[in-house]
C-alpha cells in the first residue's frame, strides 16, 4: 500500500492569542425531522467550522450571524446568531521521523459555531445559509497579493424539492477535523480530503473556487465591516488566483484530485500556504441533490519525506531495456524492485537505479519498495509499456509561399496503431500554426526556412517528437539539364528539366512532348525554347538555346614531344558534343575531349572524331617519345669521421649538377670528392635536352658518416720497478698499444705493464678502433721509480696562493690505490680526508684559514700486488 505522506497526529488544546486572520472552514447541516413549532416545516441543525491563525484573538467571538436566503427568489429570510460551541487548537507536538525537517507546533485554531435548530419550510430550490468575514492571512502563495484583502464567504445550500422530492430531508456530508498534514516541496504527496454522508448518499469530489466576502471584499454589504450582518445574498464572487494557479488547480498543474475518494496527489509546489477548496457533491440514485464546500490552507514546507517515487508510466518503443530510478532518494536506505513479469521469479533487483530487460512486449506493473522491513518504508507502482518497433516520420510537398504545403505522417509501428498527431509548423508570425490531423495542410506567408515539429503517438503509449526544416520559396525549384546546346541540321534533340509540378514548353514548333519534363525538338534554325513549371499555381520559368549547325568545327592540338614513360593530355578546340579517339587502348577515356594517354616508344599517332548529331569532323595528332637520359652513381656507402670519398657519376647527358655542394670539392666534375661531417644524401641530376626529352633524371647516393671516436688512454701514472700497473683505454671496440714494451697483451683495452729499472719513462700511443675499423689515438706516459712502493708526504706546506707548495697531499708511488689520507689538528679533530692520489688539504677548516701549526697525517694504501701500506707523520703549516 502507498503510505500517505501527511501527518495525522492531533492534540487538542484551548487558549487565545492576538491575531485575526482566516485560514478556511466549512458549513454542514443535519436534518432533525418535522419542526417542533410547525410540523409542516423541516428542522435542521446548522454548524460552521472555521479555521483561524494560531494567534487569532479579536476574531474569536461568542457568536456570529448566520444569514438564511430563500433560493427560490434570493430574498433574506432571517439572520440568526449562532453560538460558539467549541474552540480547539490543532497542533503537532512530535515530528514524523520519516519526514526530514518536519515542522511541529500549532497548525490552526478551530472554532465551531452552531444553530441547534432552525425550522424551514420545504420549497422548490431550497435555502442558502451564509456567513462572511474579513480577512484572510497575508502571503498566501496562490492568491493575488495582498492576499489579506480577500475576505471569505462560507455558504451551503439546503436542497429543495426540484432536485428530488425527498431532498429537503437530506443531511450534508461531514468531515473530520484532522487537518495537520505537512507536504514537502517538489515531492510527491497524497492528501486525504474525504468526507462521509449520514444518509448513505454517493459522494464525488472536485477542486473549486474559493469565495470572497466580508470587510474589504466586493461581496460584503459594507466595505468596512469585518463581519457583515446580514451577509450579502448569493451569488458570491471568487477570489483572484495568482499566475499558474486557479480554483481547479489550487496547487498547480501537477496536483489532481480523485473524484471518487477525495484524495488529491501529485508533485507539491514551492514552499508556502495555499488556499484549497473542495466541492463535495451528493448523489442519490444517480441524482445530484446537494453540495458541500470545504476550504482549507495547505502548508508546503521545505522538507523531504522518505518515499518511493516513480514516473506515472515508463514507455520503451525502441527495445526491451527499461531504466528505473527512485526519483526521491532522500532517506532511502534500500530499494527493492519487482518488475512485474508474472512468468519469471527472478524479475527483482535491490539497487537504486536498475535496468531490466523485459522478455516480451506488453503492459507490466513495476513495484518499488524502499526501506523494506524498516519503520520508514514506502512503496509505489507504475505502468510499464514495452512495445519496440516504433518508427516516427513525416514528409511534405509543396514549398511555395502563399500556397498550401501538404504534410503526411509516415510513422510505422509494429504494435497497435497511430492515433495521436500534433504538428507545429514553426511559423513565428502566428499562434495558429498547429494541427491535430494526420494529413494537414499549412500555407506559409513568406519565403523562409521553418522548423516543423511533429509529435506522434500510438494507442500503446509510444510517443516521439521529430523535427525537420522546411524551406519555403517564392517559386518552385527548376533545374535545367543544359542552358544551351548544338544540334546538326536535320537531327532531333531531347531537352531536359527537373522539378515537381506541371511542365509547359513553348513555342510549339518542331517539338513533341511539350507538357513533359523532357520533350524532343528538331528546329530547322537556331531557336530558344521556354519552359514553365506550375506547382499548385506556384510558377517558375527558364529557357534553353538550341543552336543549329551544318558542320563541326575542329582544331586539334599541335604535335608534341615528351619523355618516354610519361603520359600526356590530348585535346582540341571544337564545338563538337561527342568525341572518339583512336587508338584508345592506352587512354583513360577515349570518349573525352581531353583524355590522358601513355604513348609507346617512337612516334604515336592519335585520331579524333568530333560529332554533333550526324555531323562530324576528324583530325590527327602525333606524339613522339624520347628516352630519359642515363644516370648512375655508386651504391650508398659509409665512411669514417673526417674521411673523404670520391663520388663517381656516370651519365649520357649534356648537362648535370650535384646537390648539395656543401663539403664538396669541384662540384663541376662528375667525380667530385666529399668530406661531410655527418650522414649526407647527394643527388646527381642529368639533362639531355639535345635528344628532345625536356625532363631530367636523377640518382642519389647516401654517404653515411661514422660517429667521432673519443679515444682515452688514461692519466699518466707512476710505478715502482718490479711492480705491475693496470692500464685502461676507452672509446672503441678494438685497441692497439705502441710500443708493446712491458705489456702482457698490447691488443686489448686493459693490458698490465711490468717494468725493470730502465727506462725511467715509457711513452705509449693507444690506437682506438670503431666497428668499421675507423681509428683515432691517445697518449699515456708511465714513469718507473727505482725504489720500493711508498706514499710520500711533504713535511711542510705554505698555503699562500703562489701556486707552489700550497697544499699537503700524498704522492703514491707503486700503489694501486689510496684507501684514505687523513689530517688531524693537535686536538685530534679531523680537518681533511681524501681517497684520491695527489688530492690535498689547503690549510682551511670550513673555509677559514688556519694559522701556523703542526698537524698529524695518516695514510693507508694498497700496491699493485694487493699489499697494504700504512704510514703517518706530521706536517707544518707555515703562514
From TrEMBL:
Record SUPFAM superfamilies: PKD domain (SSF49299)
InterPro entries for the chain: Ig-like_fold, PKD_dom, PKD_dom_sf, T9SS_type_B
PROSITE patterns, A to Z: PKD
Record-linked Pfam families: CHU_C, PKD_4
The keyword Signal is annotated on this UniProt entry: yes
Segments forming domain PKD: 421-472
Keyword presence, Signal: yes
Signal peptide: 1-19
Keywords in alphabetical order: Signal
Protein name per UniProt: PKD domain-containing protein
Organism, as annotated: Flaviaesturariibacter amylovorans
Organism classification: Bacteria, Pseudomonadati, Bacteroidota, Chitinophagia, Chitinophagales
Amino acid at each position: 500500500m502507498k503510505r500517505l505522506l501527511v501527518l495525522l497526529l492531533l492534540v487538542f488544546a484551548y487558549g487565545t492569542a492576538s491575531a485575526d486572520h482566516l485560514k478556511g472552514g466549512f458549513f454542514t447541516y443535519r436534518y432533525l425531522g418535522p419542526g417542533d413549532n410547525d410540523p409542516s416545516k423541516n428542522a435542521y441543525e446548522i454548524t460552521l467550522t472555521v479555521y483561524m491563525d494560531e494567534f487569532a484573538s479579536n476574531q474569536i467571538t461568542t457568536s456570529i450571524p448566520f444569514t438564511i436566503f430563500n433560493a427560490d427568489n434570493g430574498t433574506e429570510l432571517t439572520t440568526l446568531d449562532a453560538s460558539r460551541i467549541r474552540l480547539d487548537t490543532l497542533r503537532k507536538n512530535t515530528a514524523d521521523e520519516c519526514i526530514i525537517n518536519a515542522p511541529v507546533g500549532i497548525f490552526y485554531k478551530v472554532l465551531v459555531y452552531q444553530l441547534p435548530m432552525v425550522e424551514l419550510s420545504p420549497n422548490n430550490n431550497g435555502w442558502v445559509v451564509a456567513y462572511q468575514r474579513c480577512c484572510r492571512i497575508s502571503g498566501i502563495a496562490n492568491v493575488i497579493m495582498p492576499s489579506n484583502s480577500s475576505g471569505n464567504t462560507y455558504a451551503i445550500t439546503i436542497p429543495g424539492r426540484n432536485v428530488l422530492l425527498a431532498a429537503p430531508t437530506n443531511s450534508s456530508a461531514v468531515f473530520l477535523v484532522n487537518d495537520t498534514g505537512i507536504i514537502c516541496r517538489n515531492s510527491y504527496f497524497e492528501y486525504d480530503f474525504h468526507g462521509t454522508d449520514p444518509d448513505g448518499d454517493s459522494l464525488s469530489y472536485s477542486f473549486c473556487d474559493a469565495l470572497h466576502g466580508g470587510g474589504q471584499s466586493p461581496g460584503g454589504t459594507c466595505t468596512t465591516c469585518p463581519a457583515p450582518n446580514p451577509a450579502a445574498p448569493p451569488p458570491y464572487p471568487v477570489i483572484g488566483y495568482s499566475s499558474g494557479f486557479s480554483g481547479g488547480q489550487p496547487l498547480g498543474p501537477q496536483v489532481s484530485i480523485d473524484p471518487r475518494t477525495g484524495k488529491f496527489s501529485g508533485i507539491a509546489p514551492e514552499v508556502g500556504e495555499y488556499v484549497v477548496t473542495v466541492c463535495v457533491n451528493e448523489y442519490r440514485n444517480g441524482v445530484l441533490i446537494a453540495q458541500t464546500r470545504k476550504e482549507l490552507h495547505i502548508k508546503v514546507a521545505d522538507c523531504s519525506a522518505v518515499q518511493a517515487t516513480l514516473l506515472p508510466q515508463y514507455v520503451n518503443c525502441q527495445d526491451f531495456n527499461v531504466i528505473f530510478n527512485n526519483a526521491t532518494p532522500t532517506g532511502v536506505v534500500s530499494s527493492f524492485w519487482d518488475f512485474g513479469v508474472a512468468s519469471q521469479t527472478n524479475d527483482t533487483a535491490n539497487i537504486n537505479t536498475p535496468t531490466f530487460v523485459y522478455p516480451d512486449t506488453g503492459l507490466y506493473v513495476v513495484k518499488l519498495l524502499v526501506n523494506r522491513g524498516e519503520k520508514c518504508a514506502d512503496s509505489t507502482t507504475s505502468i510499464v509499456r514495452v512495445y519496440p518497433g516504433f518508427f516516427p516520420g513525416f514528409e511534405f510537398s509543396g514549398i511555395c509561399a502563399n500556397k498550401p504545403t501538404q504534410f503526411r505522417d509516415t510513422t510505422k509501428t509494429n504494435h497497435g496503431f497511430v492515433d495521436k498527431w500534433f504538428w507545429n509548423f514553426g511559423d513565428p508570425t502566428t499562434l495558429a500554426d498547429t494541427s491535430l490531423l494526420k494529413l494537414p495542410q499549412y500555407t506559409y506567408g513568406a519565403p523562409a526556412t521553418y522548423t516543423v515539429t511533429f509529435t506522434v503517438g500510438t494507442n500503446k503509449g509510444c510517443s516521439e517528437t521529430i523535427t525537420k526544416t522546411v524551406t519555403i520559396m517564392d517559386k518552385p525549384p527548376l533545374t535545367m539539364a543544359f542552358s544551351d546546346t548544338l544540334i546538326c541540321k536535320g537531327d532531333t534533340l531531347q531537352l531536359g528539366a527537373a522539378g515537381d509540378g506541371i511542365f509547359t514548353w513553348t513555342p510549339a514548333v518542331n517539338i513533341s512532348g511539350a507538357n513533359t519534363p523532357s520533350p524532343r525538338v528538331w528546329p530547322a534554325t537556331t531557336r530558344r525554347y521556354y519552359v514553365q513549371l506550375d506547382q499548385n499555381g506556384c510558377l517558375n520559368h527558364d529557357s534553353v538555346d538550341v543552336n543549329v549547325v551544318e558542320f563541326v568545327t575542329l582544331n586539334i592540338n599541335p604535335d608534341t614531344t615528351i619523355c618516354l614513360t610519361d603520359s600526356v593530355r590530348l585535346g582540341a578546340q571544337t564545338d563538337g558534343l561527342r568525341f572518339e579517339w583512336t587508338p584508345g587502348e592506352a587512354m583513360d577515356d577515349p570518349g573525352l575531349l581531353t583524355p590522358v594517354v601513355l604513348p609507346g616508344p617512337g612516334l604515336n599517332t592519335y585520331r579524333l572524331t568530333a560529332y554533333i548529331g550526324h555531323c562530324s569532323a576528324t583530325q590527327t595528332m602525333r606524339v613522339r617519345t624520347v628516352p630519359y637520359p642515363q644516370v648512375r652513381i655508386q651504391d650508398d656507402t659509409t665512411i669514417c669521421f673526417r674521411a673523404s670519398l670520391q663520388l663517381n657519376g656516370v651519365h649520357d647527358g649534356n648537362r648535370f649538377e650535384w646537390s648539395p655542394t656543401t663539403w664538396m670539392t669541384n662540384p663541376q666534375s662528375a667525380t667530385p670528392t666529399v668530406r661531410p661531417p655527418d650522414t649526407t644524401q647527394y643527388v646527381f641530376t642529368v639533362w639531355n635536352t639535345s635528344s628532345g626529352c625536356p625532363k631530367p633524371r636523377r640518382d642519389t647516393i647516401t654517404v653515411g658518416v661514422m660517429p667521432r671516436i673519443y679515444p682515452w688512454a688514461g692519466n699518466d701514472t707512476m710505478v715502482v720497478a718490479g711492480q705491475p700497473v693496470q692500464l685502461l683505454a676507452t672509446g672503441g671496440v678494438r685497441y692497439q698499444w705502441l710500443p708493446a714494451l712491458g705489456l702482457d697483451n698490447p691488443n686489448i683495452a686493459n693490458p698490465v705493464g711490468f717494468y725493470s729499472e730502465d727506462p725511467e719513462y715509457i711513452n705509449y700511443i693507444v690506437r682506438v678502433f670503431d666497428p668499421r675499423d675507423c681509428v683515432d689515438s691517445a697518449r699515456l706516459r708511465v714513469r718507473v721509480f727505482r725504489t720500493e712502493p711508498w706514499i710520500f708526504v711533504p713535511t711542510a706546506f705554505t698555503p699562500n696562493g703562489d701556486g707552489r707548495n700550497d697544499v699537503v697531499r700524498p704522492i703514491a708511488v707503486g700503489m694501486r690505490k689510496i684507501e684514505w689520507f687523513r689530517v688531524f689538528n693537535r686536538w685530534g679533530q679531523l680537518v681533511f680526508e681524501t681517497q684520491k692520489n695527489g688530492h690535498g688539504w689547503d690549510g682551511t677548516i670550513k673555509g677559514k684559514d688556519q694559522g701556523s701549526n703542526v698537524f698529524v697525517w695518516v695514510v693507508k694504501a694498497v700496491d699493485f700486488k694487493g699489499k697494504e701500506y700504512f704510514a703517518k707523520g706530521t706536517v707544518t703549516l707555515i703562514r
